[in-house]
Structure to design on (190 residues):
């Protein structure tokens, strides 16, 4: 429980949007180090997996959910960010608004804040999906009013006879198990 609280305290909504950066290399940690050396904040969704330890006993270690995606907090100067991307010694690409556009797709700060909270590795009842899989899940927009996920919003979907709160960002989606009784529908804007 202390781990979960510490993770939540580390996630701060600074009001800046985020870029989704696709990697064409398996050197995820090197790319993260490169961005950090440039003074950029990064986020990589991670989960615990069991591996065999030196003594033959299983132990848990944090591993990235996907190896080809990293989220980078937006700089005030997009030209500087473009220059950083061009100087990288790694084959990377920032997700764009559309195939024809040169504009980078930005993930709004509120949506990314909730996504990072939902990626807490201490939460066990969670599923990660590709963007295509998430689009196949039908569900209503809801707001969680009660329980440990209070304050989060997303789509309520059903999978394996359980209800989940689905949060989508470009390139990846996450679902957290939630009781549908804790959720209320979000009023649609006219």
């Amino acid at each position: 429980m202390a781990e979960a609280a510490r993770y939540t305290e580390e996630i701060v909504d600074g009001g800046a949007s985020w870029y989704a950066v696709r990697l064409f290399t398996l050197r995820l940690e090197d790319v993260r180090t490169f961005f950090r050396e440039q003074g950029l904040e990064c986020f990589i969704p991670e989960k615990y997996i069991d591996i065999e330890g030196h003594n033959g006993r299983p132990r848990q270690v944090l591993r990235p959910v996907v190896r080809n995606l990293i989220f980078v907090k937006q700089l005030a100067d997009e030209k500087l960010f473009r220059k950083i991307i061009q100087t990288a010694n790694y084959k990377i690409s920032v997700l764009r608004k559309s195939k024809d556009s040169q504009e980078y797709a930005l993930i709004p700060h509120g949506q990314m804040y909730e996504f990072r909270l939902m990626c807490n590795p201490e939460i066990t009842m969670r599923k990660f999906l590709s963007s295509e899989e998430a689009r196949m899940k039908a569900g209503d927009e809801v707001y969680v009013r009660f329980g440990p996920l209070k304050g989060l919003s997303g789509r309520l979907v059903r999978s394996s006879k359980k209800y989940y709160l689905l949060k989508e960002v470009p390139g990846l989606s996450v679902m957290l198990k939630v009781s549908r009784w804790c959720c209320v529908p979000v009023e649609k804007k006219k």
In short: Helices lie at 2-10, 28-37, 78-87, 109-118, 131-136. Residues 28-37 form the longest helix (10 residues). The CA atoms of residues 8 and 117 lie 6 Å apart.
